[in-house]
Amino acid sequence: MNKKLLTTIGVAALLIGTAAMLEDKIKGIDLTAIDKNVNPGEDFYRYANGNWIANNPVPSTESRWSSFNIVSERNNETLRQILEEAAADVKSPAGSTKQKVGAFYRVYMDTLKRDQQGSTPVKPLLDKINSISSKSDLIKVVADLHKKGIRGFFNFYVSQDLKNSTSYIVYVSQGGLGLPDRDYYTKTDKKSEETRIAYLAHVTKMAELFGMSTEGFSATIMKIETDLANKSMTRTERRNQEKQYNKRSFNQFNTDYANLNFSNYCKLTEVAKFDSLIVSQPDFFSNLNNMIANYSLEDLKAYLKWSVMNTSAGYLGTAFEKQNFAFYGTALSGTKEQKPMWKRGINAANGIVGELLGQLFVEKSFSPESKKRVNEMVDNIMAAFKVRLTQLDWMSEPTRIKALEKLASFTKKFGYPDKWTDFSKLEIKEDSYIQNYFRAAEFGHRDMVSKLGKPIDKNRWGMFPQTVNAYYNPTLNEIVFPAAIMQPPFFDAQADDAVNYGSIGAVIGHELTHGFDDQGSKYGADGNLKSWWTPEDRKLFDAKTKKLVDQYNAFFVADSLHVNGELTLGENIADLGGLTIAYEAYKMHLIKHPSIIENGYTPEQRFFLGFAQVWKNTVRPEALRQLILTDPHSPGEFRVLGPLSNMPSFYEAFGVQKGQKMHKSEEERANIW
Ligand SMILES: [Zn+2]
Q: Which end of the chain has fewer CB atoms surrounding its CB within 10 Å, N or C?
């Protein structure tokens, strides 16, 4: 006990001794965020961010607040300017990007008109459902709804074939739920029961707003959705793509699930003839097939009406939007009040004309210099990864050769697409907000199904340039960094190199490691889902990742609520690997560009501080609960504590000693990539 106390004081003194200099700035690190009362060896997340956390409660219009929000806020100013300028310019040439974006925003902002319209824009759809007279006709409406972006019963999409990455294939998967996850229907704890009661009340209130009879309505919806949920895979199960790769012939699917009338669905959704498809969850479709037989036509129609109401509520007048927010914003995420109109307008524009808005965004907010610098960092981090792969002591040569081959074949994208999608066939009109949503959804649907039979379009991006995020796509073996993430605090051309390596460097390492996490490692260099590991190496890898599963399962956020170590495994592997590789890359960089102590912090310490400050966040308990249940990422706090507590280089940098919370014995530590 005494020894521990001494250690604590020892380290703290080292830092307090330099307090006078803390007035200075290390470019890229927020020194005022640091809580010097916390010992870095006990809780590095709170050491690096404690003061920031205390001074930054979640704003009333948000469910959480983090670095990502701060960058988004900055971008929002730019996006607002673009939208307002485009909306004010009524003379933009018809069909131009500016005309589409401008018309969209004008119609969105006209709440007077939206309120006058009430639910009339969706009345034709509801009438169509009312007029269904037989179960075989149900699919006609489902097809129409799906094209318009209204989900119901199941999902249909066209994407790269996981086992033949040079072609596209049709996928059908589970879907049709109004709550965020199947667990919301199946869990029996008090909080889950309360949420279901709130959902029932919400469905009833919506029925009132739409002027419908409420009798038995919400109970029917709950019964049908619970039935769908019971045969849905959990999020953890869905991480395993091999289990969901169930190839069926078109004819077989039609025979096995005859009540779906799938061939009719394909005709009506304008899908060209195809021979086979992937059924992600066969049990779900067997159940759905039975449900269509067993439920009354009236009940199934009620469910489809709810699908229309629930999707459209956010696109109609104020009363609908408010009720929608009361449930999804407040009850589920704890957000106290709606964002101002213009910010909601940005979200709406991202959802409907996102790539068009992105074209205008990069004209105003993109630095080729940042792109060049980040690209160089990617090269350095890949070089460090290569060295590590060559030196890994647990991997045999045959697997190592394949791993190196995969690393060498990564492709990378920065900023925005080289070639934008052709939106000439998308019309944005002045009639109503929701009609624009429907038109954009139909455009997206036709664009998607038109890919069938064509070669893979490698230019496509899975994120908009204005999105503060990055991703790894296993079927193209590519890492992608939108323009918006190449900004402070993730990347700052003026910042200390140590900080850039700890922030965007760790992000780059994270995306690269996704190619080698528990799922990404099942894809080869060519993007195909296939094993390239020796069975022995796979066993060793699984044993190493099991340590991480157990570690994260032990991170509690409330009484019985803890991080789901299995659901978050891929992200946790990527966090640990990414930081480890970024650190190695920084050490290599330091050899060529030596650095000195600044404000009392060594270059290594600044690297870890830069990393930990990226993940600072505050979050409402309701939102945290939702994140734990649905998000494959661990909460920010554990994205810091998890990786660092496994890294001896971190112990060394901050003098972390045995007995302190951030310290693990060699046995307990996970060391994978
Ligand atoms: Zn990730």
A: N
